[in-house]
């Protein structure tokens, strides 16, 4: 069977990219719908203590009023109190223990040092005490049946014959020893300690608690309890408009909701429920794709990134469905804020907010108190996104977690005030799930790393690591080409301030600026900023060779960056920081010295491409301006202004910024920032 070449496979992927995108969308919708609870959605939202603002709710059919959990617990407790625990009689125990008593007595008597004439009295006294105890019976009390004075009635089974007794008439081990001690008090001439020691070893239960049989009777009683109390008749008003939803009305509404869901399950068409869920989810996913198409075409065109977004959305909704299916004590244990944080770090703020809103909207159809749920999660998600708008330190994750927790807490307090109208009745343990949710949100950090590795995405966390000047490549640059390293630092400062002002990813620009000239590590002395001894190796080379060495630092940098596995988004800065401009010094020198010769201009031209984003465009300008500023003999305000204007105009005239999405207004802002910073660098005093 023939195999397709790699290039042919890529061509097929490009050809069918749209079909693949549609397939991923359909697969995501189907997976979400598959995991969602398959039940009809009750149309009314209600809470205790709130006003019923809708029209009178009239029952469309008869239904039973369910007991509350507290009522069920009370009924179950009362029913269990009627259960008589079962004990099995062990008839062989008394004879075994009495015979054992005689043997123990004979063994211990010889070492007791008591007068031999008292032996028979000692033996008989202990034997009679044990016999009295065993004639009554010995058992161990079970704490769950002890009420009041601690005694309770038991049912003793022996050969299928049941006898009822109260534990008052029976002995426990402690009671038996207390009885023996009391009886021996009347005989001061008997060594009480000697006799009690032997008796203690021979008091064993003659009645054994039968937990299995007792539990069977308890289950039968509990199964027979009624789960309802009363009925609501067809046509009866469940709740009138304007009335307060008190405990009684609330329980009627809960019962009506249960009856509605049961009725829909029996009489409703499950295929229509499935279709409804499919339509709702399809609209949400469709809106997400429309947003990407309109506002983030770069993501929309990359099926790899689309698949990541759909995976995150599907996984979150599947987790929510799982929590509903297993009936977690609270749906707020689920870390909903993890989605906007992951999307914000990997992409941008607008996309993160858009996706979070859509996820919460879908989830709202399947959770109780959907308005409260939506308020909690939308506000917390927005805070999560805003708190890491500019991620420059890792500890911002912890700060963000604290801010999210505070937001949850304020929302929780506010909703409790609306619901209860009092501070005293707030159930503070209800806030615990929110704390767990925030702690689980910190899992975003390892998940982001996993997504980066699998989907080949560069997050701001990775950029933070790359901008550490102790990174291997930057250390190598600082050691082998210190002049270039200092140049890169200055370019990073210029570009970062400019892009921050006009809007863009300042962290990405800084990373790109630090690495844009790493190709100069190969031949550092061929670049003027690294020449300290006055020796210039270009003096021994032709202009064409010199130009090629200078141009080659771009390709060398790309090769080194890929060897060190730098992200492609950073390598783009290496590739574009000179665009397709000429190495003018050597080109003009060649024309001046060899005017009669024809020369291929491309020998002196960088391969490009030209910058294709704001960030790469700003870096090109910062690189050119910073390098040119080093040639100023007496830098002052006028010379710096002229230099910046000249460099920027040259790049514009050469068409180097045509694809960078930088406006003329941005250009003016960039020039102002460059001038101000260069004057600060060269300590130029401004007249004022």
What would you note in describing this structure?
It is a single chain. 60% of the residues lie in helices and 5% in strands. It has helices at 6-15, 17-35, 69-81, 93-109, 119-136, 173-185, 192-201, 211-223, 247-267, 270-295, 297-300, 303-325, 338-346, 349-364, 370-387, 396-420, 432-441, 444-455, 460-466, 472-480, 482-502, 506-515, 543-563, 568-576, 584-593, 614-629, 637-653, 664-681, and strands at 57-58, 63-66, 86-89, 153-158, 161-166, 207-209, 228-232, 237-239. The strands form 3 sheets. A 4-stranded mixed sheet has the order 5-4-3-6. Strands 1-8 form a two-stranded antiparallel ribbon. The chain is elongated and about 140 Å long.
- How many angstroms does the end-to-end distance come to? 80 Å
The overall strand count is 8
Query: Which bin fits the share of residues in helices?
Result: 55-70%
- Strands side by side in the biggest sheet: 5-4-3-6
Largest sheet: 4 strands, mixed
How would you state the average pLDDT, rounded? 85
What Rg is obtained from the alpha carbons, in whole angstroms?
Answer: 42 Å
Q: Given the structure, what is the number of helices? A: 28
Low-pLDDT segments:
none
- The outline comes out as elongated
Pairing-aware structural class of the strands and helices?
mainly alpha
β-strand percent reads under 5%
Quick tags:
688 residues, mainly alpha, four-stranded mixed sheet, two-stranded antiparallel sheet, 28 helices, 60% helix, 5% strand
Short summary of the structure?
With 688 residues, the protein is mainly alpha-helical. The protein contains 28 helices and eight strands.
């Amino acid at each position: 069977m023939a195999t397709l070449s790699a290039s042919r496979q890529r061509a097929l992927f490009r050809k069918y990219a749209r079909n693949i995108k549609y397939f991923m969308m359909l697969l995501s919708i189907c997976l979400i719908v598959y995991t969602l609870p398959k039940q009809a959605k009750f149309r009314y939202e209600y809470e205790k203590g709130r006003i019923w603002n809708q029209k009178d709710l009239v029952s469309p059919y008869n239904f039973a009023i369910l007991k509350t959990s507290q009522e069920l617990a009370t009924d179950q407790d009362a029913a269990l109190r009627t259960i008589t625990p079962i004990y099995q009689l062990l008839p062989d125990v008394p004879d075994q223990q009495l015979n054992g008593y005689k043997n123990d007595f004979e063994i211990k008597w010889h070492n007791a040092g008591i007068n031999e004439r008292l032996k028979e009295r000692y033996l008989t006294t202990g034997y009679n005490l044990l016999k009295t105890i065993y004639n009554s019976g010995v058992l161990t009390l079970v704490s769950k049946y002890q009420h009041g004075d601690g005694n309770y009635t038991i049912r003793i089974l022996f050969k299928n014959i049941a006898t009822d007794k109260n534990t008052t008439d029976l002995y426990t081990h402690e009671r038996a020893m207390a009885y023996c001690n009391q009886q021996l008090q009347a005989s001061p001439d008997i060594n009480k300690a000697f006799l009690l020691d032997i008796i203690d070893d021979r008091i064993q239960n003659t009645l054994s608690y039968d937990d299995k049989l007792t539990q069977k009777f308890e289950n039968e009683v509990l199964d027979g309890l009624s789960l309802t109390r009363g009925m609501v008749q067809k046509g009866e008003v469940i709740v009138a408009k304007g009335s307060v939803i008190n405990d009684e009305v609330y329980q009627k509404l809960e019962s009506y909701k249960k009856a509605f869901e049961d009725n829909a399950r029996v009489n409703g068409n499950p295929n229509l429920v499935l279709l409804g869920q499919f339509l709702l989810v399809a609209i949400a996913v469709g809106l997400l794709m429309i947003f990407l198409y309109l506002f983030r075409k770069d993501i929309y065109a990359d099926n790899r990134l689309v698949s990541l977004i759909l995976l995150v959305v599907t996984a979150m909704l599947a987790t929510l469905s799982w929590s509903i299916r297993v009936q977690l004590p609270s749906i707020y244990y689920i870390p909903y804020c993890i989605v906007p944080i992951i999307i914000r770090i990997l992409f941008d703020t607008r996309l993160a907010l858009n996706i979070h809103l859509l996820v919460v909207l879908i989830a709202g159809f399947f959770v109780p108190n959907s308005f409260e749920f939506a308020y909690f999660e939308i506000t917390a998600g927005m805070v999560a996104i805003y708190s890491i708008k500019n991620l420059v330190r890792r500890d911002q994750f912890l700060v963000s977690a604290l801010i999210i927790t505070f937001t949850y807490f304020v929302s929780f307090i506010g909703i409790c005030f609306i619901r209860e109208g009092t501070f005293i009745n707030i159930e503070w343990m209800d806030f615990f799930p929110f704390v767990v949710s925030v702690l689980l949100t910190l899992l975003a950090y390892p998940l982001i790393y996993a997504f980066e590795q699998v989907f080949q995405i560069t997050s701001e966390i990775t950029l933070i690591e790359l901008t550490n000047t102790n990174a291997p490549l930057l250390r190598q640059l600082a050691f082998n080409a210190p002049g270039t390293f200092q140049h890169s630092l200055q370019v990073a400062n210029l570009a970062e301030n400019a892009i921050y002002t006009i809007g863009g990813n300042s962290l990405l620009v800084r990373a790109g600026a630090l690495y844009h000239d790493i190709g100069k590590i190969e031949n550092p002395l061929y670049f003027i900023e690294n020449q300290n001894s006055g020796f210039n190796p270009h003096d021994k080379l032709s202009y064409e060779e010199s130009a090629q060495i200078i141009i080659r630092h771009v390709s060398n940098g790309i090769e080194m960056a890929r060897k060190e596995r730098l992200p492609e988004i950073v390598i783009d800065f290496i590739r574009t920081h000179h665009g397709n401009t000429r190495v003018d010094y050597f080109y003009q020198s060649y024309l001046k010295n060899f005017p009669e010769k024809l020369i291929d201009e491309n020998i002196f031209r960088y391969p490009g491409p030209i910058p294709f984003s704001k960030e790469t465009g700003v870096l090109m300008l910062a690189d050119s301006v910073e390098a040119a500023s080093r040639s100023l003999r007496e830098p002052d305000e006028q010379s710096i202004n002229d230099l910046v204007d000249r460099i920027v105009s040259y790049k514009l005239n050469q068409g180097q910024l045509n694809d960078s999405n930088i406006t003329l207004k941005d250009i003016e802002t960039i020039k102002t920032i460059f001038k101000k910073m260069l004057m600060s660098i060269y300590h130029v005093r401004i007249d004022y």
